[in-house]
Amino acid sequence: MTRRLTMLFSAFEALLVAAIGVAIPLLLATLMWAVHFGFAPDWSGFWRASVDVWLIGHGVDVDFALDETTALVIGAPAGTAVTISIAALGFALLTLALGVRAGARVAETGHRMLGELTAFVAFAAVSLLLTLSASHPAAAPSLWQGALLPAVVFGVGLLLGILRADADRGVTAHGRIAELTARWDPRVRGTVAAALKAGTASVMLVLVASSIAVTVVLVAGYAQTIRLYESLHTEVLGGIVVTAGQFALIPNIVVWAAAWFAGPGFALGTGSLVSPLGTSVGPLPAVPILGALPAGDLAFGFVGLAVPVIAAFLAAAAVRPALLVAIGDGSRLGWSALVAVGGGLAGGLLLGLLAAASAGGVGPGRFAEVGPDPLAVGLASGLEFATGIALGLAAGSVTIPLPRPSRSR
User: Fold this and answer.
1) For residue 234, what is the DSSP state?
2) Is 58 helix (H, G, I), strand (E, B) or coil?
3) C-alpha–C-alpha distance, residues 57 and 400, integer Å
4) Do residues 197 and 189 touch, judged by C-beta distance below 8 A?
5) Distance between CA atoms of 157 and 319, rounded to whole angstroms?
6) Which residues, in sequence order, are CB contacts of 287 under 8 Å at separation 6+?
7) Cβ(323)–Cβ(173) below 8 Å
């Protein structure tokens, strides 16, 4: 494929990813415009709202000016500026997944660097144009965030797509890293690799446990969720819109559950706290999914603090054989301690970043702070991961002597 065709193909891939992301809220908004409003209002308002939703899904801050009706309902002066800064991570995950696909396809063109750069620049340009098209005195997204943040998510997807294409050709990321670190001491290389793998695996296992916990809580609180749906008095289409919006927040809720397991928990408004050691929340908006939130303190909630430690223990057990091969016959205590500290730092940093991505503001007043505290989550989980990794590495070196069978005379 020629360079010009590669550039056109890459730009088209980027445009397609952005179009799919915006089309999801736009389809629902257009149905609302046609069915509920009877084609009466200006459709451009629904276009801007759809783009705003897509941008919010990538962490872009959007400043809203409250109209008189909304301001009266929440008891705020008309025209009050409200910043929505929380990211509905479902849209970001969609962009990431489509970016992986686009990266793998562009990598097959034969002009990898040119294609990937073209796709990234084209996506950033499209994102900027979308942000400009959504700018309005009633809802103004941040221009620089609108151009940068969705493009960063897409760029990460492109990178992962390249790695997947390399793996299909037999060129693994491990092989590339081995080439770059060929001059390192084998013990250092093995220790760094074990720490990064253990920390990352610990976070992944905690997220798996969090996903299971969220599913169980939603099933257990199904009745209250249905009652909240009924209290909204939405028609079928309105219920679909509310449900779609909650689906976009499911990744956030999974991260909040991970923060709960880590200990610091999360807030549902300034002054509130949901954690294993206690729950204190004030009045909540009528969001159906919040109806599944367990009320009051959990008698054995502190048991959840063991989840990050157990996850790190299992991760350490998985990386221990490769670590022992890298260390050789020398002293293992010092290297194991480095792996525990490094794995704790890596895991704590990763979970802290996820906590930061999942938190933000969803409204005025006390709802300007929703989600976990990234610093607290990072510190607490880092300590728990380090403890679990240390225990996992130490447990593998413990041998339990078995009694010898007695010989019968």
Assistant:
1) -
2) coil
3) 52
4) no
5) 26
6) 228, 246
7) no
Q: Is 299 helix (H, G, I), strand (E, B) or coil?
A: coil
Amino acid identity at 352: G
Q: Are 255 and 358 in contact (CB under 8 A)?
A: yes
What is the model's pTM? Answer: 0.89
275 phi, psi to nearest 5 deg: -145, 165
Q: What are phi and psi of 64, to 5 degrees?
A: -110, 140
* Cα 14 from Cα 116, distance rounded (Å): 10
The CA-based angle 217-221-224, given to 5 degrees, is: 155
Dihedral of CA atoms 380, 384, 387, 392 in degrees, nearest 10, equals: -160
pLDDT tens for each residue of the chain, 409 residues long: 688 888 899 999 999 999 999 999 999 999 999 988 888 888 999 999 999 999 999 999 999 887 666 666 555 666 677 889 999 999 999 999 999 999 988 888 777 888 899 999 999 999 999 999 999 988 999 999 999 999 999 999 999 998 888 776 665 555 556 566 666 777 888 899 899 999 999 999 999 999 999 999 888 888 888 888 877 777 778 888 888 888 999 999 999 999 999 999 999 888 888 888 777 777 777 778 887 777 666 666 788 899 999 999 999 999 999 888 888 776 778 888 999 999 999 999 999 999 999 999 887 777 888 999 999 999 999 999 999 999 999 886 654 454 565 555 4
Instruction: Give, for 140, the enclosing helix (H) or strand (E).
Output: strand 139-141
Query: To which residue do tokens 């010989």 refer?
Result: 407
Q: How far apart are CA 383 and CA 344, in angstroms?
A: 6
- Using CA atoms, how far apart are residues 181 and 169, in angstroms rounded to an integer? 22
